[in-house]
Amino acid sequence: MNDLTGLIPILYAALQVVSRELVGIIPAAGRDYRADGVAKGQILRVPFTPPSVTYDIIPGKPPEHGGTEFTYRDITITKEKIADAIMWTGNEEISVGGQLNGMLVSQYTQSMRALVNEVELDLCVEAVQGALEQGNYYGTPGTTPFASNLRDLSMVSKIMDDNGAPQFQLGRRR
Questions:
Q1: Nearest in space to 70 (alpha carbons), one of 37, 45, 44, 42
Q2: Which residue, of 1, 31, 41, 170, has the greatest Cβ tally within 10 A?
Q3: Rounded to an integer, what distance in angstroms lies between the CA atom of residue 10 and that of residue 5?
Q4: By the 8 A CB rule, do 112 and 83 touch?
Q5: C-alpha 96, offset from chain centre
Q6: pLDDT digits 0-9 by tens, 137-158
Q7: 32 or 18, which is more confident?
């Protein structure tokens, strides 16, 4: 059990639980698979695709407009985190008997959730800072949102729609 090969089924079971918990801002964030090779503090330049513009079709005439001008955003990994170490003694393993694998899955699931929560917090902070920089916010600082009605929620939804947020990532049904 103390080698990686022995832990793979347990880690996979924990991952299956956590990966289905699509809450928060993480499912709406893009993923750049090249980031797996980036070290802490190293800059990764990520292409940013601008919104598309539509034009009328004129039969028999080739398009006059076209091409996408990509911009880039530089991102940096600023943290390296680890969750609580999961350690068991031989006596502890014997004392729980056949429940050990289930208990390990629960421990690893909670550890993964703790790490996911770290990512979630960082993404939320980035989203808020980006919204403030772009002027894409609604409400009055220091007041309680939704205190008397749900207009605040509908205005936030409108801002997201106006900025092209994909509907399937917002968790709404239309």
A1: 45
A2: 170
A3: 10
A4: yes
A5: 36
A6: 777 778 887 777 777 778 877 8
A7: 18
